[in-house]
Structures are given as C-alpha cells and as structure tokens.
Amino acid sequence: MPAFLLLLGLVAFQAQPPRPALFTTPLPAAEMKGKQAVMETTAGTIVVELLPDAAPNHVGYFIKLAREGAYDGTTFHRMVRGGIIQGGDPLSKDPSKRALYGTGGLGVLGAEISAEKHTRGAVSSVILPGRPDSGGAQFFICVVDQPALDGRYTVFGRVVEGMKVAEKISMTPVDENGKAAERVEIRSVTIRDEPAEGPEPFSQESPAELAAYRVTLETTLGPITLEMRPDKAPEHVRHFLRLAAAGVYDGTAFHRVVRGFVVQGGSMSDRREALDERQQRLVRTLAPEFNDLPHVKGTLSMAHGDDPASASTSFFICTAPAPSLDGHYTAFGRVVDGMAALEAIEAVPVDGEKPVTRVEVIRARVTRVGP
Questions:
Q1: pTM here?
Q2: Of 2, 158, 266, 286, which sits most exposed with the smallest number of CB within 10 A?
Q3: Is the pLDDT of residue 16 over 70?
C-alpha cells in the first residue's frame, strides 16, 4: 500500500473546528511507567505497552479515557488490509452514526514526535488533516512497518501481545470509503502494571525432574511419543519442552524426508501461522551439547546449519543408524511409542527430499509420567 494512501487513512474527514486548549497530563511520569493497556475486543485481546517517555501527554490522555470507560463499546472502524487498523472514535459507540465514524474525539493533544518508529505493532495517534496538534481519543495500530509515517504521527505505545488479533482485524471487509463493513468492537480497555516476569517454563527443574516429561507429536500420519534425555543434553530438553508446551510446533510440518536416514521438522518457515509475541520470545539459538547418545533409529536430535551453535527450532528423528551424525549433532531424546507413524512419514512420496503431500504436526503435547 503506497504511503500516501495510508496517510489519507489516518486522518479524520471533517471541517477543522476551533482549537480548544490542549490536554496536559496531570499524571507524573513515574505513575505512567510500566503500564500496559489491555484491549478486549470481539476479535480477541490486544495488550499495549505504553510509552510515557516518548509521549507523556498522549499516554496520560489514553489512561484517563480508559479509566473513564470511554473506549468501552467503541469500534475499530477503519482498516487497511494487512496495513493498519484504526479505532477509538467515541462516535463509533452508536451504530446509527456510522457515516461520522472517524470524525470524533480529536483536537485535544499536541504532537509529541519522538525517535519511536512506526514499526509493526506501533500504536500511534490519529490527527486532523494538516493539524499535527489535533490528536485525541483515536489511535491506529501498524500491522506492518510503516516508515512513511515516522515523524508525522505520535507513537505512544507498542503491542506486546495480540498482533495476530490485530492482523485478523485488518482483514475485516471494508466499504468503498475504507470503513469496516462489520462491527469490530472494543469491549473494554483496562490499565494494568506490566506483569513481573517469572522464570521461564522448565528452567527450574533438575535433570531428574525433566526426565519425567514426554512430548507427543500428533501428526497427520499418527502420534509419535518422545522420551527426553536431560542427563545428556539438559538445555536442549528444556528448550524443546518449552517450545512444545507453548504451541510453537503446532501447525509445523515434516519438511524433509531422507529415506534410510532422517525425517526433519520444526522449521518456522513451514508453520501455518506466524508465532505470537510470547512464542517468538522463546525462539533462540542453542549452544551444542554433544554427547555419547548414538544416532540410531528413533533418536531425536537437533538440526543446525554450518555453525553448531545455530540450532533453534528444527529437529530430526533418525529412521536408521546414522553414525556420521554422532558428535556433530546433539541427541536429546528418542521415540518410545509411534514407530509406525515415523515409518509412515519416511515412506511418503517426495520431490527430492520434500514430501509431496504435507505431513503436519497438528499439535505437540507435553505430559508428565510417573509419580
């Protein structure tokens, strides 16, 4: 979408009213730091980190309106497919005023342009045409990077959870004026302290405790249950359990099949949907933990590129002895149930090493065995 078209979509269509006194927040900076806005919408939840250092008056005004319930019942009334979503107009509470959506709640805030960029997830203020000092209740969320908007609009928040919800909203059908043809309502906006981060899942357990967990890959050709070997590669086990429990592997595919050698899966490039923000934070590279576990049929091991420390999400399961991999790849588990499913995956028709028919991991399920 050309930038100039986006700019037209982020202003209100109305005659310029007399300028009222601009809002100055009474909230001290310390009171606004570490705050998040939780938007409950009919399409799902969006959590926004507020940025008072960049735009104190915009953040203060947004907090004021949210605490007054001013956003409750408003809508995302305008969207550019895969580009932006715009909401917060108080007039959008009334379906009979649909023709006026986009014209209300403005002319209250002076511009607070900062170094914050209009990257994916940026939350910024809507303004009147030619009036930089005319922000107010309305805001927009960037679904993709919008560098043409930098320096023209005030960024006052960033989405930290719920970008998939924002993407979904951006796909709402629109009329010839770009207004939503279906009502996407903001049920409530609440302000909360940013939750304290606790320890990551599976980061506190001892190797003996980790050994009690199993991962079952529910594939389109049957389930495969994997036993973990944290005594040999504890950090790989923690990582794999963490990704599986967070749903990172759900909707991925076995993208490589080499008969008499391995089947490989877990690549994010083959995932049906993009990871959400919580899942993305779990994806990282691993230092190798080479050990004496042999790569035999059923061995679970982590794939990597030329750099042994580049392993991330992609894994493979051996379908035959592969001693050439010993000491070069980190084995960290084995198949304990579902060898028939593994053999069925190995037998699928391939084009080179790529399955002709998609073999999907529908869900990865973590369970605990024993007392």
A1: 0.69
A2: 2
A3: no
